[in-house]
Design a protein that fits this description.
CATH class: Mainly Beta
Order of helices and strands: EEEEEEEEEEEEEEEEE
Strand content: 35-45%
Number of domains: 1
Distance between the termini: 28 Å
Helix content: under 10%
Largest sheet: 13 strands, antiparallel
Shape: elongated
Radius of gyration: 19 Å
Number of helices: 0
Structural class: mainly beta
CATH architecture: Sandwich
Number of strands: 17
Length: 223
């Protein structure tokens, strides 16, 4: 077993003596327990999850789907970059969802702007789908489609080779298709990246770097 138990533990006694878990000698990656939880991954707004250590290659086509729940109007959702300019990025800025793509010739952005500033940041689950097909990009939020024109039709491949950063990224890592540095505060679930017929569901507990992220449950009410 190489990872911690996704559970709450309380009232532990050793030799009839109850342990004081309120003032531990040391603590690492232990969060509060919650009366009600939902499936998903909780991001506490301080960090990120890093996936695919060897680097994810977006190239010509990728379809990203996920669900998010937040009350914050700013936050990084996902970024994949390269050492050059090629990159993709998903973020929430001022309550809008932005999908950026740079195939090497310049950044283009599909923007979903809800009717109310807080209507996507209402603490309820929302479905997101971002699609890049060669030079075309589209964004679907809760069934609402947004497309944008791309003047760089000859440039079709985002030649990325860096990890997938979800919910934020380290200060020393460059992200060419993200404008925000704010880590996501809220919950994410069902992150799937599809290339052609091959769909990959990402398990955050298998991330090679996890900071301020709790993979197995989203809190309802604190206990």
């Amino acid at each position: 077993v190489t990872h911690s138990i996704p559970a709450c533990i309380g009232s532990m006694t050793i030799n009839s003596k109850q342990l004081d878990n309120e003032s531990p000698v040391s603590i690492f990656a232990v969060n509060k327990c919650y009366v009600t939880v939902q499936d998903g991954t909780f991001f506490d707004g301080s960090g990120f999850a890093a996936l695919v250590r060897e680097g994810y290659k977006v190239r010509s086509d990728v379809n990203i789907t996920l669900e998010f729940r937040t009350t914050a109007v700013h936050g990084v959702l996902l970024g994949v970059s390269s050492a050059k300019v090629d990159a993709i990025g998903l973020e929430i800025v001022n309550g809008k969802v932005l999908f950026h793509v740079n195939n090497g010739a310049g950044r283009i952005t599909a923007t979903y702007e809800p009717r109310g500033t807080n209507s996507l940041c209402d603490g309820k689950w929302h479905k997101l789908q971002a699609n890049k097909s060669k030079h075309r990009i589209s964004l679907i939020i809760d069934g609402n489609l947004v497309q944008t024109d791309n003047p760089y039709i000859q440039s079709t491949s985002a030649d990325t080779n860096n990890p997938i950063y979800v919910g934020g990224y380290p200060a020393d890592v460059k992200q060419n298709c993200l404008t925000s540095k704010s880590s996501f505060h809220g919950c994410l679930r069902n992150l799937v990246l599809t290339k052609g017929q091959q769909a990959e569901l990402f398990d955050f507990s298998r991330a090679f770097d996890l900071r301020g992220v709790f993979p197995h449950s989203c809190p309802g009410a604190e206990r």
